[in-house]
Amino acid sequence: MKLLIRSAQIIDKKSPFNGQIKDILIEGKNIKSIGDKLDAGDAEVIEADGLCVSAGWVDMRVASRDPGFEHKEDLTSVRAAASHGGFTEIVLLPNTEPVVHSKDTLNYIRQSGSGGLVKLHVAASVTRKAEGVDFTEMIDLHEAGAIAFTDGEHPVQNADLFLKTILYLQPLNALLMNRPEDRQLTLYGQMHEGLTSTLIGMKGIPSLAEEMMLNRDLKLLEYALEKSMYKSDSPALHVSLISTKRAVELIREAKKNGLPVSCDIAAHQVAFTDSDLIDFDTNLKVNPPFRSAEDVKAIREALADGTIDAIVSDHNPHDEESKNLEFDHADFGITGLETAFSLAFMYSGLSLEDIIEKFTSGPRRILRLQDPLLEEGALANLTFFEKDTNWTFTKSFSKSKNTPFLGQELRGKVRGVVNNGKQEWYL
């Protein structure tokens, strides 16, 4: 591959070219030159008004459904959705059939994603079948390439299992990811517990279920580190999908006290509040649920001050039979890979530089991945986009269409990705 990108604004706080408009020449898998009016020679030339470029984006939370539920999403379609959303690397949750609790399933997914435009990282389950009962062989899975450990869509409920997992992973400098939710408190819940749930007669999901479990997890993390002889600058616990004001405060306080913890939010979490569910749109049924306006305000503040480290898509594909039915029978989740950047740009309140950081260096720091650099000689792992372009989301490349944004006009458009000597453009 020989490719010249004309006049792209570099958005990368670590780059000496940050904010500058430059030509970028790519040969093979590497950046050959960065400069002004570079000679194209025999290179393919890409040029578009308002084009921006950053390091390739990383999504830390994606459900692929393959193996086992390929009718909802498979590894080919999830990579297509990811590239159209600007992601060159994605982390797949272990909630497949079989669950990623063995090296065989782990290797099947990793080998399917090796060498492609979108790199597939695989998170292995903490417990067998993600049932929260018996541990997996975490050391073997770590050595086989698991990027992190999580029961994914099933929060770890057992305090002893959670504590021992932290202790087991510390010598490996491996990451535990957990979504805080007390399942006893959310049983039969359909949406955020508040005025709207009362008005429309839906069983609510209380904020307390998230906050109480998060407080437990942070206390257990603190206890485990007191017992452990291993120290690391990397987060030992990553808290997935926080959604409440009090959860933000707990994370902020934990970081202030020096706990090695990080967290993320789903891009769609700042686009809606619980009042938007008044019409029973099942495409707005997500977990954690859309919360109150006060919670959304707190999340935006936490994004701005760095309490929240990353933004994820929480891509959760479902077929028609799982969504097109009564609200209380519909499954939780929306597809998000293709719209995550636009939603962050439209609703987060962050500057463009800060948004890109939440998609690039933030996730990579948590996952112990090396940051791709925008400099000559570096590997070309790049995402190209336009920040001021309005576009209508008319076609999804996911197999599933459970998104409230189809047919909607969005702002901020991905134009292409380059990675591993391959390229795709959406000009």
What does the secondary structure layout of this molecule look like, with pairings?
Layout: E1 2-10, E2 21-27, E3 30-35, E4 44-47, E5 52-55, E6 57-62, H1 75-84, E7 87-92, H2 103-112, E8 119-124, H3 138-143, E9 148-149, H4 159-169, E10 176-178, H5 183-186, E11 191-192, H6 195-200, E12 204-205, H7 207-227, E13 237-239, H8 245-256, E14 261-266, H9 293-305, E15 310-312, H10 320-323, H11 340-347, H12 352-359, H13 361-367, E16 382-392, E17 409-419, E18 422-425
Parallel strand pairs: 1-4, 1-5, 6-7, 7-8, 8-9, 10-13, 11-12, 13-14, 14-15
Antiparallel strand pairs: 1-2, 2-3, 5-16, 16-17, 17-18
Helix pairs in contact: 4-7, 7-8, 8-9
3D architecture notes:
With 427 residues, this protein is an alpha/beta fold. 28% of the residues lie in helices and 22% in strands. It has helices at residues 75-84, 103-112, 138-143, 159-169, 183-186, 195-200, 207-227, 245-256, 293-305, 320-323, 340-347, 352-359, 361-367; strands spanning 2-10, 21-27, 30-35, 44-47, 52-55, 57-62, 87-92, 119-124, 148-149, 176-178, 191-192, 204-205, 237-239, 261-266, 310-312, 382-392, 409-419, 422-425. The strands form four sheets. Strands 1, 2, 3, 4, 5, 16, 17 and 18 form an eight-stranded mixed sheet that branches. The chain has a four-stranded parallel sheet with strand order 6-7-8-9, with helices on both faces. A four-stranded parallel sheet has the order 10-13-14-15, sandwiched between helices. Helix 4 packs across helix 7 and helix 7 (207-227) runs parallel beside helix 8 (245-256). The longest helix is centred in the middle third of the chain and has 21 residues, at 207-227. It is globular, with a radius of gyration of 21 Å. The model has no long low-confidence stretch (mean pLDDT 96). InterPro entries: Amidohydro-rel, DHOase, DHOase/Allantoinase_Hydrolase, DHOase_cat, Metal-dep_hydrolase_composite, Metal_Hydrolase.
